Amino acid sequence: MKPELTPSEAVSIMQDAGSTLSLESFKRCLRQDKIPGGLYAASEGQGQSSIYKVFALPFFGWLRNTLPLADESIKKWEARQ
Questions:
Q1: Which of 24, 30, 37, 41 can bridge 59 by disulfide, Cβ–Cβ 3.0-4.6 Å?
Q2: Cα separation of 30 and 34, whole Å?
Q3: What are the helix (H) ranges across 34-69?
Q4: What SS3 state is found at 51?
């Protein structure tokens, strides 16, 4: 298992488990510290990108407690890695 996920990967897993959260909404949740295992670092200068990371273990633990189909979605994602 990869130790980190991109926000797109995390949203894809969540949507597979039944969530309707969009990528932008997910990133907003990361910025507001609403998702365990998420990290957001704001860009400091013009032309630089903000950094978003999702640490797999705490995120998967939270997801399992949040969405009933999370286990199935996580297993599918891990099988593709």
A1: 37
A2: 6
A3: 56-66
A4: strand
User: Which of 21, 6, 1 has the alpha carbon at shortest distance from 54?
Assistant: 6
Place of tokens 């860009």: 43
> Is it the case that residue 58 has pLDDT exceeding 80?
yes
Q: Where are the beta strands (DSSP E) in the chain?
A: 4-5, 38-41, 51-55
Burial class (CB in 10 A: 0-12, 13-18, 19+), 29: middle
- Residue 34 tokens read as 């609403």
pLDDT tens, residue by residue, 13-30: 999 999 999 999 999 999
